[in-house]
Design a protein that fits this description.
alpha+beta; 3 strands; elongated
């Protein structure tokens, strides 16, 4: 099944802290109308409606500590700007075009 950028990780927040659980995701291209059922029981196909994301991009590899710092700073910036944010999860998305990562 053809996939599309981005692929990435959903991380979860509790009381503003990154939790140790996560979900990896891949996007299937929109031309695939009926994808096959996964053979791995830990994998599920989810059809999700379009959603808006607050995004902060960075162009270099970062470690776990830097990810936590950047997520925390984004939360503070959104709060300061009075932006609606539920604060329960975040996404680290990887793009295969020129190393873009958001």
């Amino acid at each position: 099944v053809p996939i599309s950028a981005p692929w990435g990780v959903f991380g979860y927040l509790e009381n503003g802290k990154i939790q140790q659980r996560f979900r990896v995701y891949l996007q299937i291209v929109t031309e695939v109308i009926n994808p096959p059922e996964p053979t791995d029981p830990t994998v599920e196909t989810v059809f999700a409606p379009p959603v808006w994301y607050f995004v902060r991009g960075f162009d270099k590899k970062v470690d776990e500590e830097q990810i936590e710092e950047r997520v925390t700073q984004l939360l503070k910036d959104l709060e300061q700007d009075n932006q609606p944010f539920k604060g329960t999860f975040f996404v680290i998305a990887f793009f295969n075009t020129r190393g873009l990562m958001g």
